[in-house]
Amino acid sequence: MSTLASLGLSPDDNGVFPDSLLRRAIELEIIEAGRYKMATENIQPASIDLRLGQTAYRIQCSFLPGSDTVQARLKELGDEHRLDLQGSGAVLEQERPYLIELKERLNLPPGVRGKANPKSSTGRIDVFTRVITDHGHRFDEIADGYTGPLYLEVVPLSFPVRVREDLTLNQLRLFVGHPDLDDNDIRTYHQNDVPILYRGGHSAELDDATLSNGLFLGLDLRGDPDVPVGYSAKRGAPDLDLTSAEPKRVELYWDPVYARDRGRIVLVPKTFYLLMSDEAVCIPPTMSAEMTAYDPTSGELRTHYAGFFDPGFGYDETGTIRGSTAALEVRAHDVNFMIETGQRVCKLTFQWMLAPPERPYGFGIGSSYQGQAQTLSKYFLPHRTFETGTWDAPRETSEPTLFSPADLKSD
Question: Which of 139, 204, 281, 309 has the fewest other C-beta atoms within 10 Å?
Fold first, then answer.
């Protein structure tokens, strides 16, 4: 079995695996795919995209296996509702849970553990995913030294979706030790190294309202009365085909959302909204970040299902890009809830990298959301970049243009 030493690591190291170390983990079969060829092209700057296997099971309910294997618990619940994901794939119905074994499996050395999250493009179409492991007691968390298969629970919430074998809906990060930055680390780095937060194109002040066990972001609901500040998912939309790069017609799936006077909107329960952050975020190559679940006592809403921000997001060495705004996936809980510009609705936590990635997030690797100025997933619109170097480019209002199948490979 591989050890930390075989990865060039020691028990005293703290940090997230960069792309170079993920490739080494594949060589050592710490991450492997059995009879399937390992997809090294799915390696991102600080994570690896995980591929759907050949069969989806429609299950009665979500579960954690606890003392059992996932397969044993699946048989208890009945595994007769199988969907073949080979070829053209299959449609997953709205608001039904499915379980799919992923092609990748893990043989983690002692001292290495993992965390999974939906890809950004998955969260933006309101497809809820989370990883389950054998004998697991928590979703999306891979135990220290875990050896075994990985399974993905998939629940399309707003639209029925067509998926197929090898599609990637979620990502895995590996790390050792305790990589989290505390508030003092974030403040010191922001002031002395690279600004992490921008407001209005300038480095923002980090005060006690902005920092509290992470970095808070607010909403941007400003703009022309005739320009949408975001989108809400349409009810009764047609199947959303995730297996094709053919651009989707926005109006079939989304309604534009317009702000009221003074930059306010009212969220309607059971409706999914895509909005933008007021601030722009810069993740330097020495760190990565994750959007965490927001404290429900701060408002009747849930924000941001997609969690990982790669090193290089909103960053370039020349300073041309001063951060990138974050797309926020928002849903009200049980009652109508008013939100307004600047209201803090989500929080970023930061982790040190073990080393900077060889290929950070950005234009060089075809990243879809660098310099983004609007919220829709890459399945609907190509994400334009800031040609002027300013963070607050106007929201995209033009018709979608064609993009290639390669654009579906990377977030």
Answer: 139
